[in-house]
Amino acid sequence: MTDVQRKFTVVGLDLSLTASGIAYRDGSTHTVKTKQKDGDHRLTQIEEAVQIAIGGEHLGLGPAADLVVMEDIPQNSHAAKPIAMVHGVVRNLLNKQGIPYALVTPATLKTYATGKGSGDKVPMALAAYKRAGREFEDDNQCDAAWLRWAGLDWLGCPEFSLPVVQRDALKKAEWPEAKR
């Protein structure tokens, strides 16, 4: 890790009501799995996990993340409604903490990771192994890691090199007014 990379901390979130992938500030990953029987209390479980991921001196969790990158809500999916609920909780938390966040569509993330904006999760996992030597327990963690890597790249401190055409895909994402 170079000195430039140490200037920014980024968290990646692949949000879901049942299994949210988190890529922490240090690059480690985890999946927050919830149970349907817990109903809306699952939102609290996810919010607490995200709070730990983003940090904050006021909680004794170190400096807060500089940026959070989330996979955007799918537009034409049966999962959009529950994912929107999770996004509402997480965005509210980030707004209260003053942490900027970016939204990246699944197609943009796939293009950034693999050079192709469609397909299943296997190419994402292969690209993570090829570029970063990383393997993940599930696709939620893999997506979260790619979201974190995209944020670091956008801020000018990529963890590895990618072809320009793949990096250019990030221009399609919704980035906050942040220091780059």
Automatic annotation (TrEMBL):
UniProt-recorded name of the protein: Holliday junction resolvase RuvC
Biological source species: Streptomyces canarius
Organism taxonomic ancestry: Bacteria, Bacillati, Actinomycetota, Actinomycetes, Kitasatosporales
